[in-house]
Amino acid sequence: MRVLMLSWEYPPRIVGGLSRHVDGLSRSLSSMRVNVTVLTVEHPEAPKRETVNGVRVVRCDSFRFFSPDFISWVHQFNVWMLEEALKIASKRPPDIIHAHDWLVTPTAVALKHLFRRPLIATIHSTEMGRRGGIHSELQRHIHMMEWWLTFEAWRVIVCSSFMKREVIQAFGLPEDKVDILPNAVTPFEGGLRDVRDKYASGDEHLILFVGRMVPEKGPHILFEAAKRVLTRRWDVKFMFVGEGPLREKLMKEAEATPFSEKFYFTGFLPDDELKSLYAACDLAVFPSLYEPFGIVALEAMSVGKPVVASDVGGFSEIIEDGVTGVKVRPGDAEGLASAIERLVQNAELRRALGEAGMRVVRERFSWKVVAEKVLRIYRRVLSEYRRGTWKPVMPGGVPSKPQPSSRRTGSR
Amino acid sequence: MRVLILTWDYGETPLGRKALRDAEKLVERGHLVCIVHMAILDYEKTDGNPVVYGVAQSVKDHVNEITSAVSALGDWARGVSRAMYEWGGFDAVHAYGWRAGLPAVMAKMAFGGTVMLTLDEVRSLEDPVGGFERYVVRNSDVVLVPSREVKEALVKEYGVNRRRVWVMGDVV
Question: Which of A56, A254, A295, B114 gets the highest tally of CB atoms within 10 A of its CB?
């Protein structure tokens, strides 16, 4: 089976969870003898073409000329992505086109129709969910691109029941067109560097936040909670890992508090360093206001760390309160502060939650398990496709239309 | 010859009217013509020559000219694929304007064949749209322009080989 995976994010470009998802899924599918080609956008630190763990990766141009804004840039790279896709597909079209999120919609839909191959879409989040509604022309355009991708797709994959409800509501999809497949995590490879001493003294508890520094991920909620915790105890340090518009704002606010040395804002960290941090922390906190899935929680759980997360979206489904983590009301800084303090004070509870979380990740959220489910969807779609009448173009065939009209009498 | 004409509009703007006139002339000379154009709703007119497939633009909320043109590629592909499937290929694809030129180049890459492009003006490369127009021009086999002035502008602005640019005066 040949699969062409389309995603604007792919390592080393890591913006959110999308990149790791496509990477993990592609690797696992490849290990199951699926021929996977990932078509993504160029990155200065990666070659245009490479094969990684059996996955063929092709990176298209992103800038051939000036783009006035982000949305124009997205559409520009789609032209170059489609150009690369046509080079690949015109030799031998894929059996399945699998597109991830709206940014690759023009390429995905064009390929589907040109080669008449089934398209599968994974929707990782929606514009409506991210922004709490549609408030501008740009957002409406993105929303429509998301709708179009789901409309054109044979099947739509989402990562949680929460997201299934959201796509059905936002795009008017029939319920039986949507499959729920959770995200997964790749087990950490190699040894983890001991970085704890770099950030915290022996008697300090290291509390870790990982995510984009944007309101929907709630770093400002954790910051408020941290200030409350720090007024009551000094043996804690808060580490914010991730980039985004809130980073600078919170850094300035932290500077203005009496606890400025208790906050770290690292910005984006490469994978190996991030993994070492997960291993080094005492507690991971994810106070999102909107969370389609929440792969960061799985990453922390996979190394046996206790998690405190908002009772929202995917977190609500991943975490069993008091068993594999602690859930708090979204946006409740005081509740979050209490939960953090409760865990900081209770090493035994931290250990129990961490062990239970690690077990759940191994059983339910490994890429092998998820990729097997994806493969079942591919097989089902291909079986339906083969029984149908919608089939590829055969260039060079005999034209059947039009019937010559009475006007077709002139000289050539 | 079997000719596939791609035009954003069909008979409404000067370029669309040119597409309509050219299609009629080709039919008069005995060629088989298929037209794919953007329409309000999908429709088809398959009785006689030319055959017309109107394809509706799925995403109608746009931010600018670029988002409108590129997001339509999937819709163009729907029409082009239909034409290819029904006809089994074309001797030439003739596009009117850069927005229709994008799917023409796409069709050439997917199925082979020759692309002719009709342009009535040249966009500056300082205009972000100019980059797309230059891409389409460079990937077309022949570019038809209405005057020497436009030809010179095309050669100068996009660095295109002047032998591939043909002046075809407008008619009234």
Answer: A295
